[in-house]
Amino acid sequence: MSQTIISSAIPLLQPRLVYGLRTDIKGNANFLSDEEVLYPVGGLLSINNFTQKRQKFIKLPDKGLNVTRIVVSPNQKLIGVSEKGERPSIFLYDGATLKKKRQIQLPADRESTGTDYVTYQFTFDSKNIVAVLGEPEWNLYVFRCDKGKLESSAKANNLNGTGTVNEVACNPNDANLIALVGSQVFKMMACTDTVWRQFGFSKSDNLNLSSAAWLSQDRLITGSIDGKFMIFESGDLKAIFWAGDLPIINLKQKDKDDIQQQSSQTNISEPSAGSMHLGEDYQIRCLIVFPKGFAFAYLNGDVHLYEKETPVKFRKRNIFKVPDRNIVREEADAEIVMNEIVALGINPSQDRLVVTCKQNQLYYVRLWGPDLSSNQDIYFHEMGPTLHHGPIGGMDVCSWKPIFITSGEWDRTLRVWNYETEVIELCKQFQEDIHGLAMHPTGLYTIVGFSDKLRFLTIMIDDFVTTREFPIRNCRECAFSSMGQFFAATNGNLIQVYCTITFENLFNLKGHNGKIRGMSWTRDDYKMTSCGTEGAVYEWDIITTKRSSETIIKSCAFSGVVTTSDGKSNFAIGSDGYIRELVNSNIHREVMVFDKGLDVIALSHSDQMLFVAGNEGVIYSVKLPILDNAEYLEFAGHATVIQRMAVTYDDRYLITCSVDSVICVWKLLNIEGKAVKVDKEFTPSTDILISREDLEEKLEAIRDLQLRMHELVTEHSYQMRNMEVLHGMKIKEIHEGYCLAIEDLKEKNESLEAEHAQELSNMNVDMNNLKQAHEEFVQKLEINYNDKLIIEYDKYLLLEDKLANMRLNYENQLEDLRKAKQESEESITNEFLQKLHEKEVQVEELVEETKAKTKEHELIKQQIEDDADREIYELKTAHEKELKEEQDNNVRLRGETGIIKKKLLTSQKEIDELKHTVYSLQNEHVKFKGVIVGLEKDIADLKKEISERDATIQDKERRIYELKRKNQELEKFKFILDFKIKELKSQIEPRDRQIREQTEQINDMVSELENLQKVIMSLDIQLGELREKLSAADNELKREVTKNRAAKAALKTIRTDLHQMSGYIQDIPKLTRTIKEMYHKYNADKDFELTQAEDIESKNEFLRQRDFLERTVKTLQLQVAKNYSSGGADKIRLVDENCTLIAETNSLRKDLKGEVRRNKKMESLLGLTNKYMLARQAQKRLNDAVATTEEIHEEYKQKIKDEANAVNALKEENDRLLGKIIISPEEAFQCSSQQEDESHK
User: Fold this and answer.
1) Under a CB-based contact definition with an 8 Å cutoff, are residues 616 and 598 in contact?
2) Euclidean distance between the first and the last CA atom of the chain, given in angstroms as a whole number
3) According to the record, where are the WD repeats (predicted)?
4) Which 3 state secondary structure label does DSSP give 40?
5) Which of 163, 394, 524, 953 might form a disulfide with 157, Cβ 3.0–4.6 angstroms?
6) Cα–Cα nearest to 92, from 84, 101, 83, 60
């Protein structure tokens, strides 16, 4: 990296406004005063006065990436910020000067493997910090705030190492008293001479506590994850309450009987029926206690407030609710609960609460308003403007107004911000994902890239109205020209340029092969520059719509480009961390800023200030013109990647947006002579757009309100006059009453004074009497006490004499005891001296005996030593032989060991080489992983885009298919008249096919009858069918007779007409006309005649087949009679089953007859027969028919298929039955006769 050179000519950045909130830090909302709120945002701590709209900032170490918790001291003078790492730290900041005072760490001589302080608190006097170091140690440490010195330490969790600590609570009056709670942990500890000792309740095996706070010096309240309160007093468990149904907490026990009845001495309240629901989170969070009561978070988005009535009684005052702003997204695995409360704080005046939840928003509510009796839901209000949640995908600045617009990728909102008044002017949420946007220079229009289309929106006074839509999906880069007459939008790797006035696609710019990451227009709109991830920077001539210059660096994926006002040079950044100045397709200069790549770039309107962003949220202010060594200054305010950056129209502010939804407005300093010169007469535009309907409604509302105001003023003045009259009358009455009261009081005062004087005189007389009585009483007491003193003195003298006598007696007794003691001591001494002499004699005898035994032991010892020497010599010789053998083996093993050592050295070298290779491969693997992650993101985006395009294509294909289908239907209707004759001819084909199939079935059945007894039932079925056909032929014969009669009648009419025509033989023209009429009257169509001929031929064929089958049946019956044999035992049952099947077959035949009749009716409708209507009428009706040839064919095929399936099923069943029994000829003929009778019936 190039060396950073600090120069006075480089512009400086100072944060002016920072919008956002970090929800991953515990304790992320605290009051420093009644108006100032402390919260983390990006890489800063913000102290925001929302009333005065003032912000102050504290820069966090390492951009705040390792910060875990923020705590403010009870006196609001110290701010504690904990940071995780190999050596976790707590930074202390001064609340007044906002400067870092001290960094607290464990001493170097203390070995610790913990990486984070899970919880810590200030003591009540703000002099010490009590911190708990997390796993695996779970130790408690106490530090001095002024010196950072470690005062004491202890074990935080259980002594056996079980349990985890969630919260530490410091006593509000005693710095040496704390409480630790957590999962299977509850410890109340007191410190004496830097030694912590546990006391009180210690049964924590089944406890899972989430928060704790001290109600008073000796009373502790804790909350559990299952919604229960446990209150401890002086270390003992006092009561357990259910938080969900607890209107009043009363800790006072009424009488001693209640205490005796309670075996555990606790008051336990159980949850009411229906108050618990499966799947709800009943954890009690963020428990805080203050002099007027306490508050805690319960369930999702609810804060319960209890008011303190007495030291032992608390009443539930309110339940405050956080607005539910949950957003459901289709790709999310699970719904994120946005209103789950993370932190809770109260101001020093105890009249406002501030809360934070998982959503990036501060909420507040005022306390001590309406209580629960009002039955109103009290909601928290947003503190400050409503903020984005999730990454900010697009941002653009207006050229006419002090506003800028942003879009949220996750929350799908558009917001218009005013950085002068620090308010949100407009906010709207959409249903589609938003990817990119651009604002018109006037600030009245914007183009927004949604997931389905690119929309041109008009910014109204209170809404975004869609003016035009363009078929561009997932547009991430779009930009208006400097004058606003054009706008460009990316569509894949294509740039489409539209006219802002006519919305016409003027031209498309083709050339990029990768994603387009940046576009920039010149001031005169004649040129535009674009860059892409494939490593190309193109400069486009708008007039000719062609490329005027290009620069390609394949090793660098460009991420941003800006062009100067005159378009002579461009500045581009990319993944290699260089800033390149491009002039006429050449790299004029390039300097390294950050070797891991740069993200965005911005150039001032004066072309004299350049800003780039990289290194996870760091902004670099680069000096222009660029030299060989980069001169820049670094400014860190964001904690994540900056996605968008822009300079305002007057070059006074720089606006940046990051992935963590933080928006920062930086004030530019040291810009004398570098900012654009704004005309003195220029004033920011204040114009807004409003529809005529809204304007008329608002004017009408204003007129109504003015009229109402006038009426209210008149009414108020009238009421005031009436009130003045009434007040005058009341004052007069009060004055009169007051005068009367004064007179009464004067009289009462005089009477009271007289009474008082009389009382004084009476009191003086009483006092004199009391004095005399008292003096007489005192004299009597003195006389009595003198007599008593004389009596007591005499008693005293007697007691002294008695005491002297007792003393003499005790002295005599002591002398006697002394003499007796001396005599007993002498006797005891003589007795023990005699015993001592006896013992001395015994000792001398034992000494002589010991000497004799010693001599004997010496002899035995000498013998044992001789034996041992002999054995040692033998063992020595044996072991020398073994030693020589072992030495030989050692020499041999040393040689082998040398060889193995050489092999080991070579293998170690190979291992080192392999480790080096593995290390290099791991580095390459990490690099490839990064590349793969980027490519996977690109693939995911492309897949999403492909899926969306596929959906569009499917929609279009569906529409095309529907249009084709409609076209086919129209073609059918169009050509139906052309194919009428062919359709009429094709109607005969199903009948021929049916006749052929039936003929084939008959042939199959004949062949089956030749196979012994198995085909008897099949022959019966076929015989029945033939009889049905015979009856059909009889019916057909009858119809033919009827036709013959009709033909004779027609012949008769023809003869009559001929006879009448013969009368016109002399009148030739009339005769000719009459002949033509007769011809048209009696002549039939040729097609009809052909159809009749074919019908006659098919009937003759049918009669021939019937005769043949009847002869075949007779021969088969004779064969059955010959092949008859006796049946089995179940012959009768099978015959019954066979008869049942025959009956079912007959019913099927009846159905078939009905179908035949319906078919003949259809034939008459089609004009094939004259039974029901004439041929011309049938043809006329056929012209109106809708069914096509294919549909009729399919219908007949389906019917024939169904009938064939039914016949096959019956054949198989008959074959199964015939395989078991052989029917006699008499029975066969009897069954056949029964069938004939049934068929005739």
Assistant:
1) no
2) 112
3) 509-550, 635-668
4) strand
5) 163
6) 101
Instruction: Decide: 354 and 384 in contact? Cβ < 8 Å.
Output: no
What's the pLDDT band for 1228 if we cut at 50, 70, 90?
very low
- pLDDT (mean) for 1116-1134: 61
Kindly state the DSSP code that residue 372 receives in the 8-state scheme.
G
The tokens describing 500, both together, are 């802002």
Please provide residue 1026's backbone torsions phi and psi, each rounded to the nearest 5 degrees: -65, -35
Return contacts of 866-870, CB within 8 angstroms, 24+ apart: none
- Contact criterion met (CB below 8 Å) for 55 and 103: no
Instruction: Choose between 218 and 920: higher pLDDT.
Output: 218
Strand, helix or coil for residue 1024: helix
Q: How far is CA 820 from the centre of its chain?
A: 101
Q: What is the mean pLDDT of residues 107-127?
A: 89
Query: Which helix (DSSP H) or strand (DSSP E) does residue 832 occupy?
Result: helix 692-975
| Distant-in-sequence, close-in-space partners of 692: CB < 8 Å, separation ≥ 6 | none
- Please tell me the predicted confidence (pLDDT) of residue 1220: 59
Could you tell me the CA-to-CA distances from 299 to 206, 275, 352, 376, 1115 in Å, in that order? 22, 12, 21, 19, 95
Measured distance CA(1221)–CA(1126) in Å, rounded: 9
Q: Whole-angstrom Cα distance, residue 641 to residue 598?
A: 10
Residue type, 1052: K
893-916 burial: b if 16+ Cβ within 10 Å, else e: eeeeeeeeeeeeeeeeeeeeeeee
Task: Enter the tokens of residue 254.
Answer: 């009424």
Measured CA angle at 472 (ends 467, 474), to 5 deg:
110
Rounded CA gap, 1043 and 1032, in Å? Answer: 16
What is the token pair recorded at 200? 């009180």
954, two tokens: 């499917």
| Residue carrying the six token digits 């001494």 | 829
Tokens of 1061: 């025509």
The Cα–Cα gap between 580 and 540 comes to 18
> Mean pLDDT across the stretch 630-643?
91
**Cα-Cα-Cα-Cα dihedral of 102, 108, 109, 110, to 10°?**
70
Cβ-Cβ contacts under 8 Å for 1132 (sequence gap 6 or more): none
Contact assessment for residue 593 and residue 630, using Cβ atoms and an 8 Å cutoff: yes
Tokens of 936: 């996977």
Q: Look at residue 572 and give its three-state secondary structure.
A: strand
- CA distance readout (Å), 259 to 232, 238, 246, 339, 582: 16, 11, 21, 42, 89
User: Looking up tokens 């546990």, which residue turns up?
Assistant: 198
More confident residue, 758 or 1201: 758
Q: Are 197 and 190 in contact, with CB atoms under 8 Å apart?
A: yes
Write down the H helix ranges in 976-1015: 980-986, 988-1009
**524 contacts: CB under 8 Å, gap ≥ 6:** 482, 483, 567
Closest CA to 384 of 710, 35, 767: 35
Report CA-CA distances (Å) from 809 to 798, 802, 804, 814: 17, 11, 9, 9
Q: Coil, strand or helix: which one is 59? A: strand
pLDDT band at 1240 (very low <50, low <70, confident <90, very high): very low
Decide if 345 contacts 353 (C-beta within 8 A).
yes
**Which residues, including other chains, have CB under 8 Å from residue 847's CB and lie 6 or more apart?**
none
Place of tokens 């054995």: 871
Could you give the dihedral angle defined by the CA atoms of residues 1133, 1134, 1139 and 1142, in that order, rounded to the nearest 10 degrees? 150
Q: What is the dihedral of CA 170, 172, 175, 181, to 10 degrees?
A: -20
- Residues near 827 by beta carbon (within 8 Å), at least 6 away in sequence: none
* Best CA proximity match to 249, nearest among 315, 319, 318, 317: 315
